[in-house]
């Protein structure tokens, strides 16, 4: 896969209410591990819609990886101002990343007009990528179930790999931190 779409839960769906929650370090480590594996297999671009949570954390991971790898990241929000109702921290992160990513463009001009914009976003991201990586617990898919359904439909029509980071993968990352005696989970 040269281009992969990454998505997953919003912070509240993972019981993360503080932007300094230690769980974020584990999530980012799991994303980093999967992305590096994909880069080693030829990944060149990561696409996200810029949602708070897994997608913004993925962008932060990619920006860190740029020091070591030739990887690009594109952010394609479904509409202008998607971040305006988010907590201030995530609004600031979104604004910062929009200035430094390799590609940034809203799918629709103007603000939110209806749920069709989210469906169009999912279809666009799937059409522009060779596969996807989802942080998901398939028993509790939350808001990404709509993306997953669209990806599964595409996968049934053509070769569209759906890769996942599961709760089990996150448990393995936590165990790696414990095994390496890493006690400071904060981001640098």
UniProtKB/TrEMBL annotation:
<protein>
    <submittedName>
        <fullName>SLOG family protein</fullName>
    </submittedName>
</protein>
<dbReference type="Pfam" id="PF06908">
    <property type="entry name" value="YpsA"/>
</dbReference>
<dbReference type="InterPro" id="IPR010697">
    <property type="entry name" value="YspA"/>
</dbReference>
């Amino acid at each position: 896969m040269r281009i992969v779409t990454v998505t997953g839960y919003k912070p509240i769906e993972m019981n993360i209410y503080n932007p300094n929650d230690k769980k974020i370090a584990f999530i980012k480590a799991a994303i980093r591990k999967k992305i590096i594996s994909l880069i080693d297999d030829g990944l060149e671009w990561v696409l996200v819609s810029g949602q708070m949570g897994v997608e913004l954390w993925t962008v932060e991971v990619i920006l860190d990886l740029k020091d070591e790898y030739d990887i690009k990241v594109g952010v394609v929000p479904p509409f202008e101002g998607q971040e305006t109702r988010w907590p201030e921290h995530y609004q600031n992160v979104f604004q910062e990343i929009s200035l430094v990513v390799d590609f940034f463009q809203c799918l629709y001009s103007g603000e939110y007009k209806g749920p069709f914009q989210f469906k169009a976003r999912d279809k666009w991201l799937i059409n522009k990528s060779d596969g996807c990586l989802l942080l998901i617990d398939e028993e509790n898919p939350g808001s990404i179930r709509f993306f997953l359904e669209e990806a599964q439909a595409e996968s049934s029509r053509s070769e569209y790999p759906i890769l996942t980071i599961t709760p089990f993968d996150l448990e393995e990352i936590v165990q790696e931190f414990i095994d390496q005696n890493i006690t400071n989970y904060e981001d640098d």
